[in-house]
Design a protein that fits this description.
By secondary structure, the protein is mainly alpha-helical. It has one domain. It is built from five helices and no strands. The longest helix has 23 residues. The radius of gyration is 14 Å and the shape is flat. Bound molecules: zinc ion.
């Protein structure tokens, strides 16, 4: 049993939100989200994005949320690569 990779989780967020994956994958993503706060934040943004889109004001909000998702993604990737090479956040 290995940790679900952050980039995999982030790539699968939409499938997860749509429940368009098998039960085992759903459980794996959920387990990862519980242990990885950057991914959980990205998940929260994606869920919020859907609520905003559902309300019909997608353009401005989605751009801002996408940027915040990318930030969370970078923070997550930074944690994963920390033991190899510490990149300064600038
Ligand atoms: Zn993660």
């Amino acid at each position: 049993m290995t940790d679900h990779d952050c980039s995999d989780v982030l790539a699968e967020l939409n499938l997860y939100l749509d429940r368009e994956m098998g039960e085992i994958d759903l459980a794996r993503v959920e387990m990862h989200l519980r242990r990885c706060s950057p991914c959980l934040e990205a998940f929260d943004f994606e869920a919020e994005l859907r609520r905003v889109v559902a309300r019909g004001c997608r353009e401005r909000a989605s751009e801002e949320l996408r940027a915040r998702i990318l930030e969370a993604l970078e923070a997550c990737a930074g944690e994963v690569e920390r033991d190899e090479d510490v990149a300064s956040p600038e």
